[in-house]
Amino acid sequence: MSFALLPRAWSSVGRQSHPANLPRNLINKIAAASRSTSLPTRWKMDQPSRAACGCASAKRSGKRSAYIALGSNLGDRVTEIEKACHEMDSRGIKVKRTSNLWETEPMYVLDQDRFVNGACEVETELEPLALLDQLQDIEKTMGRKKLIDKGPRNIDLDVLLYGDEEVNHERLQVPHIGIPERDFVLRPLAELIPTKAIYPSKPWKLVQDFLNELPPSSEPLSTLTPISPSVGPLNALKATRKTHVMAILNTTPDSFSDGGIHTFDSMRDTILSFIRGGATMIDIGGQSSAPGTPDVSAQEEISRVLPAIELIRSMPESRDVAISVDTYRAPVAEAAAKAGADVINDISAGQLDPDMLSTMARLGKTVCLMHMRGTPATMSKLNDYPDGLIPTIARELLERIAEAEAAGVRRWRIILDPGLGFAKVGEQNLQVLRHFDELRNWPGLEGFPWLLGSSRKSFIGKVTGVPKPMDRIFGTATTVAAAVQMGADIVRVHDVVEMGQVVKMADAIWRY
């Protein structure tokens, strides 16, 4: 028996337990026992470690982090990727975080449709090869047929990284061999782990370093945020994208500028005017967020919102319009989604109902997370930003994003809103508009689409001297043009016809 093959734990116990200091009869007993199949594997001698090469198929004793590439270019690409994530979760491969989704040109085999690519961080007890087996079985279960190498596929799942381990096996190479050369892999990884080393042998070279070294592509990549089957996705980094007009449809008697105007009898005509004015989204609200307005019950809010959703869904003219529900209550969000709403627009970003984030995740809808502090009744007093307005909004939105992701909301399903008029007064709203591009490019916020809602708000009245909200059209128009110039993807407005014209002109100037 070789002393070098004795259990490694002995070397750390002390000189008195070194094999050379043990009695010969004890050494002989240990040697004989090591050849017995009755001893646990960790005590057996002359057995190479299967875990070291990634060959074991059993579960590990502890959970490990791995990073999985997600890709699709057939069918409903986002739905296919979301199905794969759901399947991983159901098999105990817990999806902890996701990147944004990136739309990319095909690589290697060029004669095929554009891909949607992303990455996710998973937590697993599976060994690398067992993890690969599960991913390939998910592909098979979802109907993938590999006819051409690197050709079209409805789903593609690859192990990119597995902890800090290297795996060299005929079936699996980790880190994935294609990481350094693939923009569509490095960008999602850089969203998740920008400061992680890809190769353990080169701990000084990080994911972000590899991404920075890539030559610029002929067409810059853009993120992709799905809205609805009838409305194309948002491409927040595409310079020539069109700005979406979101029409405000309040079904409340006490909203600050249009309370009681939109009755059910007049609603059809209102919706038609929105569509003719260029609205691609309609945001329906059944609870006013104006300071001083009383709360209504969730059931009352549902009774106000659902008839509007059902009406829009029944109208042939609105088949290409997405429906958003403006609510911070989980029961309202759920009822609205079941009735046909596409987007959940929560002014509190999940802070006013403890069930909202988990409900968002379960419904799988795209969500808008707005920056706000406190409640509508207290927010105006919570407007102190000693560390700077933009840095604080960025930090607090990053916290909201992390909370949403922890609840299971996918990163590619998130729209952000800086919350004009919410815990911001007067000049602070102008600062947000002036420095909105800085907020969009804040580390960790890059690639998200943004909604801006300045319509008729009090800071416009203070600047222009117009007391009545309904008369603030020209002031609102200026803020909408500024929002487009600074990079907003959606503008939320009351005066759809007028603001639709402003958006068309602003797009023509800045998004040509």
Automatic annotation (TrEMBL):
Biological process (GO) annotations held by this record are:
folic acid biosynthetic process; tetrahydrofolate biosynthetic process
Which GO terms of the cellular component aspect does the record hold? mitochondrial envelope
PROSITE patterns attached to this UniProt entry: DHPS_1 (PS00792), DHPS_2 (PS00793), HPPK (PS00794), PTERIN_BINDING (PS50972)
Q: Which reaction does it catalyse?
A: 7,8-dihydroneopterin = 6-hydroxymethyl-7,8-dihydropterin + glycolaldehyde; (7,8-dihydropterin-6-yl)methyl diphosphate + 4-aminobenzoate = 7,8-dihydropteroate + diphosphate; 6-hydroxymethyl-7,8-dihydropterin + ATP = (7,8-dihydropterin-6-yl)methyl diphosphate + AMP + H(+)
Q: Which InterPro entries match?
A: DHP_synth-like (IPR045031), DHP_synth_dom (IPR006390), Dihydropteroate_synth-like_sf (IPR011005), Hppk (IPR000550), Hppk_sf (IPR035907), Pterin-binding_dom (IPR000489)
Give the record's pathway.
Answer: Cofactor biosynthesis; tetrahydrofolate biosynthesis; 2-amino-4-hydroxy-6-hydroxymethyl-7,8-dihydropteridine diphosphate from 7,8-dihydroneopterin triphosphate: step 4/4; Cofactor biosynthesis; tetrahydrofolate biosynthesis; 7,8-dihydrofolate from 2-amino-4-hydroxy-6-hydroxymethyl-7,8-dihydropteridine diphosphate and 4-aminobenzoate: step 1/2; Cofactor biosynthesis; tetrahydrofolate biosynthesis; 2-amino-4-hydroxy-6-hydroxymethyl-7,8-dihydropteridine diphosphate from 7,8-dihydroneopterin triphosphate: step 3/4
Which family, according to the similarity comment? In the central section; belongs to the HPPK family.
- Protein name, UniProt field: Folic acid synthesis protein FOL1
Source species of the chain: Pestalotiopsis fici (strain W106-1 / CGMCC3.15140)
